[in-house]
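Cross-posting from the modeling subforum.

Setting up a comparison between two proteins and wanted a second pair of eyes on the formatting. Protein 1 (sequence, then structure tokens):
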Amino acid sequence: MTFYSRSHRLLAALALIGLLSGCSVFQQRDEMARFNSAYDRGDYGLAASVMAVSDKSDSESKHVLQYLHRGEALRLEGDYQPSIDAFDRAEAGMKYLDAEGFASAASENVMSVLVNDSTRDYRALMSEAILVNTYKALSFLALGNDDYARVEFNRADDRTRRAVDFFSEEIAEQKRALQNDPANARTVQRSIDSGSMRSVIQSNYGDPSAWSVYPDYIVPASTYLYGLYFLANGGSDVQRAVTSLQRVSDMAPGNATVKADAELAEGLASGKLSRQDQPDRVWVVYENGLGPVLEEVRFDVPLFYSYHGDAQVILTGIALPRYRDRTAVSGHLSANAQTTADFAQMGKVIRTEMQERFPSVLTRAISAAVVKGLIQHKATESFGAAGQLGSIIYTLATTQADLRGWQAMPDHWEVARLERPADGRVELTDTLRGDLGTVSVPDQPYTLIYVKRPTAEAPATVMLLDLQGKRPGECLQLSGGGTPARPCAS
């Protein structure tokens, strides 16, 4: 084989890898754009259809994101069992979050270094998995299946407790992967530990240690709903409510409703308050807006090589994912003149988790830069200008941050509490836009009105739920402007 033949083949192979990587990313982003277009305007049936997965697919791990988006769109349609089924399949693809001593497939690690993290099966955030269990619990309450709702609330709480251990194991996994290539491992670690690397990252990306995060890893909305559920069910479960509601109150010290709920749970648990003397209560939880999404930050970093025995420092590009906030629906909800107040922010939850996971993300990005830098050296050395050109095209095409994420999560949650009115009528009002509609609360002691509204253009989806799970719930969509409440599409 001639020099030119070999160099042309190398050039073609590297260019093909770059092209395939780019096509895959384009397809993913096109699918997300179509989903978001439908989801943002409240066309949840169309949004769910965009994320349909063939029934013949037997690999849940390759379709976790589709199942996550589809499951939430179906839930907002009031199509609860299909939503649960989609979330079940998403969970089946998240087994690595629950396995002790988990390890990635070797081929997947290799491809994420040679190309980028988007070539790996999607690795869901722990906060996403916790929300899956919470949404399933609410759906089971809507179906009147209290036993399964309890299982899902407990799963969400269990994942919350195990999250810190998982993050530690993820970092350990990355170190084990690097040990398979000791020479590159030394280069990666030397580069990460250098002061110049830290300076470049802080200048171009920011300092993750300075992010506004929660003091403990928790998804406050999930922990709060867990607490409300066990508060409503009484008996020995009340102590669970005390612990959970106090945790959330500590993280939202300015929220009077959450503080009052923690005090109520404590009073019932200690016997200072009698359950029989308590009025029937209604909680309005408002899931508001569109949660953070990832953007790419690309910049040059110094890498410390030892090549043919010579120490070298070169500048090469890396791409890192960074979250940016989207929008919330301005204003609040008012329920019979009781106005909701913020108590949980999704951006803060995600940045708390990302702060823990950032060392692994950075290590993989630096590892990829080291390997691609060596490829450029060797291609240039072996094939001259053609090899150098091919390796540069390949490096530019494959240096991309993984920007995938579950984009149906909210910006934040709000809550209000009121006594059940004698006639059961609760008027929901957008404090900036006026009346949304009226819901009729059944005669029951503990009611949850769960409202989700991604944008001001979308209707407010209302799940009217019995927190004790004794009767099925109701799903309504409220558009305001004098339009009466209507059942969800299903």
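Protein 2 (same layout):
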Amino acid sequence: MIDYHRIPYVNIDRQKLTNELNKRGAYFSNVAVWTIIFSLPLFWLLDVLFMKEEWLYLLAIRVIFFCISYFFYFFGTRRRWNYQLILNLVVGANVCLMALVCGIVPITNALPYFLLGSVMMLLLNTTVFWKPIFAQLHCAISYAIIVVLYSINSRMVGYGALIANGGGVYFLVSAFSCFIAYNRYQVIKRETEKNLIIEESNKRMLEQNEKINDQHHIIEEANRRLKELSDYRQNTLNIMIHDLKNFIGSNQISIDLINRKSSNLTADQKEILSYITMGNEKLHYLSKKLADSAEADSGKIEYRFETFDIIPEVEKAAISLVDAASIKQVSLQVHLSPAAVMVNLDKIFLRHILFKLLSNVIRFIQKGSAVSIHAGDSDGNCIIEIINKGTPIGMDKLDEYFNRLQAPNQSDYAVTQSGMGFSISKQLTTDMGGTLSYESNEAIGNYFKIKFKLA
């Protein structure tokens, strides 16, 4: 195999891997053992058809081996033997029986026995999960028994008759089944390793999510303190601006009063008065700039409205979530108006609304269901509908998700941000003059509707 096709499976708990392999092997061995045990009537039918004189003796031998196989299975299960030991005992007993019958029957009647033995070995090695050495060992034992018994019973005929009457088919098929056993073992082992890595990755992701939630608490507390400091700074700044304006107003009243009596002032006094007037004007200018700065530092979102066609934006949002939908096995069905639907909105925040809403719909709906996205105009409004006919999320849950921004400081909301996108999309839609409504019940499934005025 080329090296770049090899996947380095590192950091796997070998004990856990062994336990998982044993679980899978035990299941497959249980199926194989019961299949072998209850195949007695099929072999007995062969004996009746091709060994009419000795079928009673063969039936007695098969019943004895049936009891031995069942004893190994029952006693081994009660004693909690390893599944590979039980499987090898049961398979070994039946392989020896099959080889024994193939070696003692007349060579002219051996073909159906060899063919059925080939099917048995092929089915066995494509069903069970065990180390390839066991399959090779059972094949070698059956080869030895067949060759020894054939040499004793048909030493005058030659081995050509053995090959021509089914022995060749059995040797070829059983040998090929050993390769199948090897490939099956490697594939299932690699698949089990991959599943363990995925399980471990999911576990680490949950741990990281828990750490993120812990950090979220710290961030929320820091944001609360920063907000308190910001409010204190804003209040202090407003008080200072108010006092400064009062001071400037008082100075201006005094200056105006002096100017009305300027005829009694000397030239030096008039010059000093002009300096005071100029300084008061500068203070007035600075107070105005300070007030403008305080108003601008409000932290509110500034929207940049523009007129554009909303249909391509809905299509882009659906396309961007195709991969997420395929992971959830959700089918996206897009139904868009062929005509342009012009709106006057902030395009960036509209994309944010569509992505948040649609991604959370995909996240919370039933796996394997379908989502229909409709976009068009009606009665002077742009209408965007997202419809899912699967299991309802429930109005209680949707009310909780869509109203989370109204109480962001509650402890239960601080623990997790699950469904926060619903609340964000609703808030942004409302801020831009639109409405976002929703329904969830058994009759209509899950229904979401965004409405904006046309441009």
